[in-house]
Amino acid sequence: MDALMARFSQQTEHDLRAAGWEPGRRVDTTAWRNQLEATGEVHMHAAAEGFLGEFGGLKVKISGPGVSSAREPFEFNPGDLHGEEGRFAGWGARLGKSLFPIGELDGGRFFLGISELGEILLVETWVATFGIGDAALENLILGVKPDELA
Fold this sequence. Notes:
By secondary structure, the chain is of the alpha+beta class. The protein has one domain. Helices cover 32% and strands 19% of the residues. The protein has helices at residues 10-18, 30-37, 46-55, 85-95, 133-142; strands at residues 59-60, 74-75, 100-105, 110-114, 119-123, 127-132, 147-148.
């Protein structure tokens, strides 16, 4: 495939494939939707459903220096964030975004969420953005420091 037509950089595609991703991968998101929507605090919007349908369940085991921060392992298992729905609802309200939990960064030190526009965010006692869509995955995997929002 022509390098200009590639969806991801070689490094990102390698790390995603090592975690079990492949083009066309699909997983059922129903259990995550039911578990996290049960509180009424978060809603699995189309961006979350699409993202988790492709990347849900992946555990990306990376480490070492990155572009502007360390490459930290992460896992896209929103069920691990059950009990944190209020944090996502609160930050979403503050930022004017609908945030849905998608996983954890650095062994649970930070949480990851996705907005209705496909923006991937680090969520803790502060919030930062990795960007939107595939570019956000690139930044997450290559160790690009997210931009702090609040």
